[in-house]
Structure formats: C-alpha cells, structure tokens
Amino acid sequence: MSDSSNDNLEQAMQEGKYIRTIRSFVKREGRLTKGQAAAIEKCWPTMGLEHQQGMLDLAQVFGNDNDVVLEIGFGMGKSLVEMAKSAPHLNFIGIEVHRPGVGACLMDADEAGITNLRIFEHDAVEVFADCIAEGSITTVQLFFPDPWHKKRHHKRRIVQPAFVESLRSKLKIGGVFHMATDWENYAEHMLEVMQAAEHFKNQSETNDYVPRPDLRPLTKFEQRGHRLGHGVWDLMFERIS
C-alpha cells in the first residue's frame, strides 16, 4: 500500500468512516439448483433485504415489535429455519454470502410457511455497519464460522476486538452474543477476545464455555462429529452496558 493510500485510510478511520480491510470469508458463488433459483425469485421480494436499503426500521420490516435474533453465516439455513419455525414470537434475520445457501434457506422457509425470517445476501460486517440500528438486536448468533485454522490466517477470523465492539452497540442491554465452533483453537481465540471485551459478561458458570442451549438445533454435521468424538464449544456473552 502506498503512503498516500495509508494516509487516506488513516484519515477515513479518524473521521469514523467504515473501512473493510480484511475479509473473514471467501466468496463462493456455487451453482444454484432449480429449486434454489425458483425460491430466490419467489421469496426475495418479501423475505430479502438489500444492503443499499441502509438503516433498517425493524418494526416496519417485520410488522411488529418482537425481539430480533440475527445470525451471521447461516450456511444452508436448516437450523435457522428450524429456529424461526419453533419461535414464532421472535423475528429472525440471517446473513449469508453463499448464494446457494440463500436459495436453500428461502426454499425451506417457504415450504414451512415461515413469515418471521428475513435474509441478507451480503457481507455481515458491512450489514452491521450500515443497516442495523444501535440497541436493536436481542441475540447475535455465530455458529461454526470459518476457523481459518492456519496461524497466518487467524487475522481473517471474524471474532476480533474491533468487530465485537461494533457488534456490542447493536445489541440491546442484556442482549447476547452466542458463538459455537468445533475448532478448539478457535474456541480459545473467541474466549480470549470476549474476556478482554469491555461491557460483556460471560454467561458460563465456569467463566469459559456453556452447554449447548436447546435453542440451538443440533445439526447433522454436529451429530456426526459427536459420534467421531469431536468437541463443540458454545460461548454466550451478555451485553451489560
């Protein structure tokens, strides 16, 4: 990066402008099935959210004032749809950059007749910065994010101090950041970052991890991991101020 670029970046950050420098994901388009493509065409007008819409009025988006659960990186959306179906008294927002996953989630949601779910197909960090109002979210979920297991790639992990601080402002007081991973090293990284984060309280009685709560469905991937003896670590941190 040139000296002038460094100067421009530093000036923008001093002015409070959001600058994305390192991405925590690799964009993979993949091929849509006919069902996924049809679901996007059918459901996007009512369930899709666009980054360019800017700051959301969540009561207007959902037509009610119910608490909002936001999930980052929902994959194919199976567990997100299951949660939305099981908790009609809550509103859900899912964010995913993988288009086939978006299509699969919308297809399952449509088949289940779900109306309390909205979807972004966009970078979660930019959605948080530009579309989510402060103090508007009850729970943020981050389940099985890319662990970037090679040490030189750890900087790409989404759970970093700057992101946690930006996320904190979006949570209501008493709101929870719920993480889960099947990589022990990433669990340790998450715990280290969250323990150092101000204004959060660990909900673990042992000040580390919590048992999987019933609200997080057990996925087929996770069931297979249990059979093979693989561990899964849940962390739940509450915003206290």
Provide a descriptive summary of the structure in words.
With 241 residues, the protein is an alpha/beta fold. Helix content is 39%, strand content 18%. It has helices at 3-14, 34-47, 58-62, 78-86, 99-112, 124-131, 161-170, 184-196, 220-227; strands at residues 48-49, 68-72, 91-95, 117-120, 137-143, 171-181, 200-202, 233-239. An eight-stranded mixed β-sheet has the order 1-4-3-2-5-6-8-7, with helices on both faces. Helix 2 crosses helix 5 (99-112). The radius of gyration is 18 Å and the shape is globular. Pfam families: Methyltransf_4. S-adenosyl-L-methionine binds at residues 71, 96, 123, 146.
Keywords:
single chain, about 240 residues, alpha/beta, 8-stranded mixed β-sheet, 9 helices, 8 strands, about 40% helix, globular, disordered N terminus, tRNA (guanine(46)-N7)-methyltransferase activity, tRNA_methyltr_TrmB_bact, S-adenosyl-L-methionine, methyltransferase
Sequence-ordered SSE layout with sheet pairings:
Elements (H helix, E strand, L loop, with lengths): L2 H12 L19 H14 E2 L8 H5 L5 E5 L5 H9 L4 E5 L3 H14 L4 E4 L3 H8 L5 E7 L17 H10 E11 L2 H13 L3 E3 L17 H8 L5 E7 L2
Parallel strand pairs: 1-4, 2-3, 2-5, 3-4, 5-6
Antiparallel strand pairs: 6-8, 7-8
Helix pairs in contact: 2-5, 4-5
What's the alpha carbon Rg, rounded to whole Å?
18 Å
Order of strands, widest sheet: 1-4-3-2-5-6-8-7
What letter string, H or E per element, gives the SSE order? HHEHEHEHEHEHEHEHE
- Give the beta-strand count: 8
Strand content: 15-25%
The number of helical runs is 9
Structural class, please? Answer: alpha/beta
Q: What is the 3D form? A: globular
- Alpha carbon gap, first and last residue: 38 Å
